[in-house]
Design goal:
Aldehyde Dehydrogenase, Chain A, domain 2, 24 strands, seven-stranded mixed sheet, single chain, globular, binds nicotinamide-adenine-dinucleotide
């Protein structure tokens, strides 16, 4: 069967290569985390499909890369319009596939997918550029030239959102693309491929190879025909990709994991702090940016803890399609076991589990309760490693120096949240934090003009605005002399 119906929406289970649907000899099973129901057998790509896709993208490059920027932007804007027109289909398919809240997909995530295309179309036409400058009468002219085939490899926690965050700037820059979506969430990439065709993107400019990371993913990143690799996922996978890319010296951009601190200073508004802390359970904790380590000043820790606990225990867990639900399931049985393993080991070592700590027995399946672990030791794995589930830790501090030392004390540096009632105090803290993004008295405010990425092991490079073009394009400086002209 090459297509299935998901909540009334037809989804093709095959690859999308060179503008056509391609089958594989073998398939892999895809199930919904909501209730474990079987969704479909997805084409399982490997070397053959990767070779076809890179060849198709290479063939399409001369056409797409020489399409004038305004015309490229027009195609991107048509893709955005089609995303808007198909918003509810994309939202319900994504929710069925990855278990994240339908209301978030409808209101925030899918509109953001469309915005990714409009933003980079606009940036290409209206903002990308650098004023020419003179060197002893010579003119320096900086340009961003298309570079070639970009391989994009993406995770399952926000599948279409994170993929289009790369697809849009890569296409805007004039590159052609091969996308390998996560094997746990293959469906919206396939729907999206149909939209690119409808929008008039030339065949081969965008390709999707489905499959496992160790097969399709590994074959893709080792391909000598690539000019860029952009990856969002875990640190161990990034290391494997970096080694494969080294063989061809393919430039890589990595957006990786986090273990971000959530710092509540003594002068913080406790109601605000508790509201923001509860948001760290969003997407059932499967958010790279989550401030999973709550660090709270001694003087307010008991009061904060009480308010936060009341908020967290009021969260409603259940079917992510229900608009009343706040927390859905974990993505996959293997991931559920991983999350549970962290909490079980912490419990076995005597950790103080303030609430949660177990699967939600009433719901069964992959639903794990929002959990808070109080004062685990600073070197324990639940404090130093990314759990990527609805599991927060809380630790107290008594001085700013101590808060900074603990906050910066992991190998990650993706994000941080600081809650404070005093601007000078907040500034003093943020200036000492090592993180790519810091939110002060807020969380998850994202603007595509801003740089996004991680420090330390949380990433290599930055995305957003011109930073994205800097990666996907070949940045060129042309120096023109004042002499030698005949006319
Ligand atoms: P993962 O590293 O297991 O997989 C990510 C992607 O890489 C998948 O498509 C997978 O198939 C592919 N892959 C796996 N092995 C590969 C290989 N050898 N070669 C090529 N590709 C391979 O990560 P995940 O479990 O899907 O996602 C969760 C991780 O992603 C967490 O660490 C999370 O923090 C991180 N993440 C980071 C950001 C960010 O912007 N920094 C955003 C979302 C998720």
């Amino acid at each position: 069967m090459s297509t299935i119906e998901v909540a009334g929406v037809q989804v093709d289970l095959r690859h999308y290569i060179g503008g056509r649907r391609i089958e594989s000899e073998s398939t892999f099973r895809n199930s919904s985390p909501i209730d474990g129901s079987f969704l479909g057998d997805i084409a399982r790509g490997g070397q053959r499909e990767v070779d076809l896709a890179v060849a198709a993208a290479t063939d399409a490059f001369p056409v797409w890369s020489t399409t004038p920027p305004a015309d490229r932007a027009a195609v991107l804007n048509r893709i955005a319009d089609l995303v808007d027109q198909n918003l509810s289909d994309l939202a319900i398919v994504e929710t069925t596939d990855n278990g994240a809240l339908l209301r978030s997909h409808l209101r925030g995530v899918m509109p953001r997918v469309a915005h990714n295309f409009r933003f980079f179309a606009d940036w290409l036409v209206n903002h990308l550029g650098h004023p020419d400058f003179e060197t002893r009468g010579h003119t320096n002219h900086v340009s961003w030239d298309p570079s070639g085939v970009a391989a994009l490899i993406t995770p399952w926690n926000a599948p279409l959102m994170l993929a289009t965050w790369k697809i849009a700037p890569a296409l805007a820059a004039g590159d052609t693309v091969v996308l390998k979506p996560a094997e746990w969430t293959p469906l919206t990439a396939s729907l999206f491929a149909d939209l690119t065709k409808q929008a008039g993107l030339p065949d081969g400019a965008f390709n999707v190879v489905q499959g496992y990371g160790s097969e399709a993913g590994a074959a893709l990143v080792a391909h000598p025909g690539l000019r860029r690799i952009s990856f969002t996922g875990s640190v161990p996978t990034a290391k494997t990709i970096a080694m494969a890319a080294a063989e061809n010296l393919t430039p890589c951009s990595f957006e990786l994991g986090g273990k971000s601190p959530f710092i509540v200073l003594a002068d913080a508004d406790l109601e605000l702090a508790a509201d923001l802390a509860v948001e760290q359970y969003d997407n059932a904790g499967q958010v790279c940016l989550s401030g999973t380590r709550i660090l709270v000043h001694d003087s307010i820790a008991d009061r904060f803890s009480a308010v936060f606990r009341a908020r967290a225990e009021a969260l409603r867990q259940g079917d992510p399609r229900d608009p009343e639900t706040d927390i859905g399931p974990q993505i996959h049985p293997a991931h559920f076991d991983r999350v549970k393993g962290f909490v079980d080991r912490a419990s076995a070592e005597g950790a103080d589990i303030v609430f949660g700590g177990t699967p939600n027995e009433e719901l069964g399946g992959l639903y794990f309760r929002p959990t808070l672990v109080n004062e685990p030791s600073r070197d324990s794995e639940i404090v130093t490693e990314e759990v990527f589930g609805p599991v927060l830790t809380m630790q107290r501090f008594s001085t700013d120096d101590e808060a900074i030392a603990v906050a910066n004390g992991t190998e990650f540096g993706l994000a941080a949240v600081v809650v404070s009632g005093n601007r000078t105090h907040a500034d003093a803290i943020t200036s000492r934090l090592v993180a790519g993004t810091i939110w002060v008295n807020c969380f998850f405010v994202r603007d595509l003009r801003a740089p996004f990425g991680g420090s330390k092991k949380s990433g290599v490079g930055r995305e957003g605005g011109t930073w994205s073009f800097d990666f996907y394009a070949d940045v060129k400086n042309t120096v023109v002399a004042p002499q030698g002209w005949k006319e």
